[in-house]
Amino acid sequence: MFYDYLAYVCEEQIANPVVAQRHYIDQGHRLPRDIRQEEVKRLFLAIGDHLRDRTIFMLMLHTGMRVGKWSIWA
């Protein structure tokens, strides 16, 4: 709109350097599936009594967080 206004005020054609971007939905990824209760039990059996690890996994289970390929610790 700014360049349209300039063209109107200056009474000459002014090229707009802004290129409109098109946004497309990437349909190549599936949504994550729920974890079954028996898998949760096996996971916590493998973790054992390590308080830190149990806390991390409980947080992930109750909030819906999941491990991705991007990590702040990488």
Description:
The chain has 74 residues and is mainly α. Helices cover 45% and strands 0% of the residues. It has helices spanning 2-10, 37-47, 51-63. It is rod-shaped. The mean pLDDT is 79.
Please name the defining characteristics of this protein.
about 70 residues; mainly alpha; 3 helices
| Average pLDDT | 79
Give the overall shape, derived from the CA principal axes. rod-shaped
How many beta strands in the DSSP annotation? 0
Structural class: mainly alpha
Tell me the Rg in angstroms. Answer: 26 Å
Distance between the termini: 43 Å
- Please bin the fraction of helical residues: 40-55%
Strand and helix order: HHH
How big a fraction of the residues is strand? under 5%
Uncertain residue segments:
none
Number of helical regions: 3
For the largest beta-sheet, the strand count, sense and barrel status come to:
none
